UniProtKB/TrEMBL annotation:
Catalytic function, reaction form: (3Z)-octenoyl-CoA = (2E)-octenoyl-CoA; (2E)-tetradecenoyl-CoA = (3Z)-tetradecenoyl-CoA; (3Z)-dodecenoyl-CoA = (2E)-dodecenoyl-CoA; (3Z)-decenoyl-CoA = (2E)-decenoyl-CoA
Function: Key enzyme of fatty acid beta-oxidation. Able to isomerize both 3-cis (3Z) and 3-trans (3E) double bonds into the 2-trans (2E) form in a range of enoyl-CoA species, with a preference for (3Z)-enoyl-CoAs over (3E)-enoyl-CoAs. The catalytic efficiency of this enzyme is not affected by the fatty acyl chain length.
Any single biological process term in GO: fatty acid beta-oxidation
One Gene Ontology MF term: delta(3)-delta(2)-enoyl-CoA isomerase activity
PANTHER family to which the protein is assigned, alphabetical: ENOYL-COA DELTA ISOMERASE 1, MITOCHONDRIAL, ENOYL-COA HYDRATASE-RELATED
Subcellular location: Mitochondrion matrix
Official protein name in the record: Enoyl-CoA delta isomerase 1, mitochondrial
Annotated Gene3D superfamilies: 2-enoyl-CoA Hydratase, Chain A, domain 1, 6.10.250.170
Oligomeric form and interacting partners: Homotrimer.
């Protein structure tokens, strides 16, 4: 049997090499809720179960910028220090879990800031994927790219109907880092992962369930959280150290691969985003997202008018 010394050494290696000590994101304790100073990440601890509901709270779409990632990283440290019994990751938006990385961090970046940004993303992934506490995602909206990554880092995923999830990077003309790919390989069958990654495929909820990218479908957010709680409760009967060590051993190679190559990964990222073709793709994508957002009222008006015509036709 593996000793608890090993698990502590392993967890220490994961946490202590990457601790973010940011005064800006000190956590304020409020009753059983903790909020980061700027409320980018909300934490509510359920007194009965001991589970923490961690809510990404950066409207409108929870795009992951430096500040949100730093706040999330601090929250993960806190849960680890407090020996959390389990975490449920969700979103305060009613339609988006997370839109993935904030494209504005990648497009025409400030090099000093983008270094901190990428390092923070690495931190979050290492801490979430390798967490000693069990995790589940209540995916209450779309989860493209980085949003899908964080959901896949959790051991269990419950998603609401009619949303989409996937690693869509190739569609943007960018390559998902190897640790994004490793997380997907750990979640769905290898061949399906290769197809999903190369196509940059976004899966609707039903298809994601068939593929095993998610584990359950819920009717609404409350139901999703309830289903995550049922999953986390299963671990209450399992000795904590054995569970944590098994999870971390299972994911160890992926984590060590990044741990041992953080600077190389950062340099590869710099190289990729410095490529004029990548910048051109990102520029077009930013413009497309902005146009799509501005067209929304027009598209909704067209939809509304179509509805009126249809109902009039039926009456006649
Ligand atoms: C071999 C290894 C090599 C390694 C090289 C590394 C290279 C770099 C790798 C980087 C990996 C990247 C990971 C990512 O996560 S990239 C981000 C991908 N995300 C997306 O494609 C999602 C885009 N967004 C959407 O599809 C929709 O917004 C969404 C479905 C999420 C929600 O739709 P909805 O209709 O509700 O909202 P709007 O589209 O109207 O958006 C509202 C406003 O939000 C802005 N927005 C949306 N997404 C983003 C984003 N990701 N970043 C920044 N801003 C975003 C959008 O523009 C609207 O803003 P405005 O109203 O101001 O126009």
């Amino acid at each position: 049997m593996l000793s608890s010394k090993f698990i502590h050494a392993f967890t220490r290696q994961i946490y202590h090499t990457n601790l973010i000590t940011s005064a800006t994101f000190n956590v304020i304790k409020k009753h059983n809720s903790t909020h980061t100073k700027n409320d980018l990440v909300l934490v509510d601890v359920n007194d009965k179960t001991g589970f923490s509901i961690v809510t990404l709270n950066r409207p409108p779409v929870n795009s992951l910028n430096l500040e949100l990632l730093s706040a999330f990283s601090s929250v993960l440290d806190d849960l680890h220090k407090n020996n959390s019994r389990g975490m449920i990751l969700t979103s305060s938006s009613s339609t988006v879990f997370s839109a993935g990385l904030d494209i504005n961090e990648l497009y025409k970046p400030d090099m000093d800031r983008v270094r901190k940004f990428w390092t923070s993303l690495q931190d979050c992934w290492i801490k979430l994927y390798g967490s000693s506490f069990p995790t589940a995602a209540a995916i209450n909206g779309h989860a493209p790219a980085g949003g899908c990554l964080f959901a896949m880092c959790c051991e269990y995923r419950v998603m609401l109907p009619k949303y989409t999830i996937g690693l869509n990077e190739t569609q943007l003309g960018i390559v998902a880092p190897t640790w994004f790919m490793a997380t997907m390989k750990n979640t769905i069958p290898l061949r399906q992962a290769e197809l999903a990654l190369t196509l940059g495929k976004m899966f609707k909820t039903d298809d994601a369930l068939k593929l095993g990218l998610i584990d359950e479908i819920a009717e609404n957010k409350e139901d999703a959280i309830h289903k995550c709680e049922i999953f986390l409760k299963k671990y209450q009967k399992i000795p904590q150290t054995a569970r944590a060590l098994t999870k971390q051993s299972y994911r160890k190679n992926d984590i060590m691969e990044l741990e041992n190559n953080r600077e190389a990964d950062l340099q590869l990222f710099f190289l990729a985003i410095s490529d004029p073709r990548v910048q051109s793709s990102l520029g077009k994508y930013v413009a497309f997202l902005k146009l799509k957002s501005r067209m929304k009222p027009i598209l909704e008006a067209v939809k509304f008018l179509k509805g009126i015509f249809k109902s009039k036709k039926k009456k006649n």
